[in-house]
Amino acid sequence: MAAVSGGTRLAGALLVLGSAFTAAAPSQASVTEHRTYRPPVLVASNPRTYIIEHLFSQEECNALVRRAEAHGMEVATIMSGDGTQKPTAGSRASFTAVLGGVEGNDLQLRTWRERMAAAALLPVNHAEPLAIAHYRGGHGDRYELHFDSSLSVGRVATVLVFLSDVHHGGELMFPWARAENVSALGLNGITGPGRPISELQGVNKEPPILPMCLDPEDAALKISPRAGRAVVFFSHTPDLRRASYRAMHAGCPPARLGEDKWLAQLFIKWHPIGQPNLVQRAMAVLNEEWRMPLLDDID
User: Fold this and answer.
1) Which residues are paired to 134 by β-bridges?
2) Three-class DSSP category at 189
3) DSSP line for 195-239
4) Are 68 and 96 a contacting pair, CB within 8 Å?
5) What span, in angstroms and rounded, lies between the C-alpha atoms of 114 and 262?
6) What's the rounded Cα separation, in Å, for the pair 68 and 77?
7) In DSSP terms, which residues pair with 95 in a beta bridge?
8) Rounded to the nearest 5°, which phi and psi values hold at 210?
9) Residues 128, 251, 243: CA angle, nearest 5 degrees
10) In angstroms, rounded to a whole number, what is the distance separating the alpha carbons of residues 33 and 294?
C-alpha cells in the first residue's frame, strides 16, 4: 500500500464523496436527490457494515443498468477459495457483467469506482473492475450463503450499490451478523438483530436461505434494495483475519415478476491490483492460531 498519511487519504476520500452533491447532473431532480445524501450509518459491528443512502442518483443507477444491458449479461459463476471462478452448482442463479478494467479511462466507470472506493476509505487502485449483477423478479434468482474473501483472495472490503428498488424480497442478508439496534437507525427496509451464531455448532453445511428469506420475522439482518443505497462491509477484522461466519451473507430472491434486482459491486483488496498478496505470504508462515476460527464470538 502506498505510503500516504491517514489524513491525506481521508481528505481525498471525502472530496470524492462530496462529488455526490456536485457531480455533473442531467436534471434538477438528480441534484435534489444528491442533497438527500446521508453520512455512513453503522448497521452491524461484526462484520463491520455501513449503509450510505443516495450515494448515487436514480439517473446514475438507470444509466449503469442500461450500459450493463447493452454490454450483455452472462450467467453468473461463483468464486472458489483460491479466487478462481467455477460453475454455480445450484448456489447462485443470476446474471452478471464486468464493465471495463481498472485503468480509469472511462468517465462513467471511473466516477462509480472512485466514489465507491471512497465510501470504504480505500484507494481505488486496490479495486477490481466494476461488476453488475441482475436477479430477475419472480424467477427464484438468488445467491446462497457465501464469503466474499479469504486470505488468498484478499478482498478487505465489499462496496455494493443497489441500482433498483425491490419491495418484495431481494434483500442482502447476513444471518449471523451482530447487528446494531436497526429499528433506531431511521433507515427504511433494514430488519433483524442477527441470529445467534451458536446455532451453527455441530453443523457441517450451511443451511439454505429460502426459509430465512421468506420469514419476515426471522432474526437475520436483512437490507432491502433501494436505488442508490450503498452497503459497505468488511470481510476481515482490522488485523486481516477473516471475520468468521458472521461475514457470510446471501442474496434473497426478488419475489415479484417485473421487480428485478440490479446491483453494482466493487471488491477492494488490501494490495494494489497486479501486485503480490504479501499478507497471504506472511500468514502462510505464521502459527495457525492467527487464523480466526469460523465460530468465533459465540453468543
Assistant:
1) 95, 262
2) coil
3) --GGGGTT--SPPPSHHHHH-TT--SEEE---TT-EEEE-SB-TT
4) no
5) 20
6) 17
7) 75, 134
8) -60, -45
9) 65
10) 41
Do the Cβ atoms of 141 and 250 come closer than 8 Å?
no
Q: Please, which residues bridge with residue 273 across strands?
A: none
- Grid coordinates in use for 3? 505510503
Paired with 3 in beta bridges are none
Helices 6-22, 107-119: crossing angle, 10 deg rounding: 130
Of the candidates 135, 108, 105, 158, the one whose C-alpha atom is nearest the C-alpha of residue 265 is: 158
Summarize pLDDT for 159-216 with one digit per residue, the tens.
999 999 999 999 999 999 999 998 888 899 999 999 999 999 888 888 999 999 999 9
Q: Write out pLDDT tens, residues 105-155.
A: 899 999 999 999 999 999 999 999 999 999 999 999 999 999 999 888 899
The answer to whether the pTM exceeds 0.90 is no
CA distance 125 to 102: 7
Tell how far CA 5 is from the center of its chain.
26
Residue 36 corresponds to which cell in the numbers above? 438527500
